[in-house]
Amino acid sequence: MQAVDQTISDIPRSQALANLLKSAGDPLRIEILRALAQDSYGVLELSHIFDTRQNGMSHHLKVLANAGLVDTRREGNSIFYRRSTPHQSNETSIDELDLTRAMLFDSIDLTTLPKIVEERIVEIHEQRSLTSTQFFAEHGSSLKEKQDLIAAFEVYGDQVSNFIEHTHLKHSNRVLEIGPGDGQFLPLLSGKFSQVFALDNSQTMLESAREFCKSASQTNIDFILSDTSWCQQHVNYVDCVVINMVLHHTPSPQQIFSDVSATLNSEGILIVCELCNHNQDWTRKACGDLWLGFEPKDLTQWASAAGLNEGQSSYFALRNGFQIQIREFIKPYI
C-alpha cells in the first residue's frame, strides 16, 4: 500500500498523471487553484473564502498537494498553500507533468471566481492590511529600534545604493519608494532623480518620513498616503521603483509586483531589498511582520507573472541568522 506522503517522483508516470487529472476533476478544487493564482493562503483563510469546513478544505488541499498542484510554505506555526512551480528534470528541461500542470493552470485562469468568493478574498487582504496598518500606527515611534533587531538601515542601505549605481537606468526622472519607513533612503534618491515619490499607507510612517526629509532640506519629494493601487492609476509613469524591507509587511506581495509593473516605464527598474525565508516567528509580534521572508524563487515567480525580467542579484547573511536578498527586475522594452 502506497504511503500518503509519497513524493511525485516515487510514483509511476502514468499514475502521477492520473492523480493530477483526477485531483483537478472537482469544481471546488478548480476554484481553489484559481484563487491560488494570485496569492497564498492558510487553511482557515481558504475555508472562509469558500465557506467550507476546515477538515473538508484540508482534504481538498491534501489531494491537490499529492498531485503536485500546490506547494506549501511554513510561516511560523501556520502552513500556507500556493500553486506549484515547475520542477527541473536532470536534463534541465521542463518535465512533461509540469507542462500538463501549466496547461491546466492556463485553462483555469480563463475562468472567473464567483463574486462572493472574490469579495471574501478582498476581506482576507483587508484584514491582513489592517493588522499591518494598526501595528505601524501603534508602534511607529519605536519601530526603528525593533526593526534594527533584524537589520538596521545602515546594514543594507549602502548596498542598495551601490546596487542602484550599477543598474542600467535609461532615465533618472521619476523614482518611487514604496514604504519609505522613516525616510532614511529618500535623501539618496533625491540626489539621483529629478522627482521622488514616497508612497505609504500608514499616516504615522509617512509623517515620520516627511519630518526626516524636512530636516535634510529635501524639496523634490512628494509624500503620498495610499497603497500600491496608486501605481495602477499612474501607468508608465516612473523610471525606477525601490522597495526596502517592505514586502514581508504586505498582505499580497504578488499584487505589489503587478502594481509596480503597471507604473514602470519601458526598461524601468524595480529594486527589491528583502529578507530571505527564515523561521524566527518572534518577528511577527515584535516587528509586525506578516511573512517570514521569502525564497528567492518567490520573487522571481511574482516578477515573471507581472511581466518583469530578472536582472542582477546579491545576497548576504547577518550575524543574527537572517539573510538579505537584493534583487533587480526590469520591465522589457515595449
Keywords:
2 domains, 20% strand, Arc Repressor Mutant, subunit A, 7-stranded mixed β-sheet, alpha/beta, 3-stranded antiparallel β-sheet, single chain, 334 residues, Rossmann fold
The ordered string of helix (H) and strand (E) elements is HHEHHEEHHHHEHEHEHEHEHHEE
Low-pLDDT runs: 88-93
What kind of assembly state do the chains in view correspond to? single chain
Radius of gyration: 21 Å
CATH class of the largest domain: Alpha Beta
End-to-end separation:
55 Å
Q: CATH topology of the largest domain, anyone?
A: Rossmann fold
User: Helix count, per DSSP?
Assistant: 14
Strand content: 15-25%
Share of helix among residues? 40-55%
How would a crystallographer describe the biggest sheet? 7 strands, mixed
What CATH architecture of the largest domain do you see? Answer: 3-Layer(aba) Sandwich
What structural category arises from helix and sheet content?
A: alpha/beta
Can you characterise this structure?
- The protein is α/β, with parallel strands linked by helices and 334 residues long.
- The protein has two domains: 8-113, Winged helix-like DNA-binding domain superfamily/Winged helix DNA-binding domain (Arc Repressor Mutant, subunit A, Orthogonal Bundle), CATH 1.10.10; 141-330, 3-Layer(aba) Sandwich (Rossmann fold), CATH 3.40.50.
- It has 14 helices and ten strands.
- It has helices at residues 13-23, 27-35, 43-49, 54-66, 96-108, 115-139, 143-147, 153-165, 186-192, 203-215, 229-233, 253-263, 282-287, 296-305, and strands spanning 41-42, 70-75, 78-83, 174-178, 195-200, 221-225, 238-244, 264-275, 309-317, 323-330.
- The strands form two sheets. A seven-stranded mixed beta sheet has the order 6-5-4-7-8-10-9, sandwiched between helices. A three-stranded antiparallel beta sheet has the order 1-3-2.
- Helix 3 (43-49) crosses helix 4 (54-66).
- The longest helix is centred in the middle third of the chain and has 25 residues, at 115-139.
- The termini are far apart.
- Mean pLDDT is 89; it is low at 88-93.
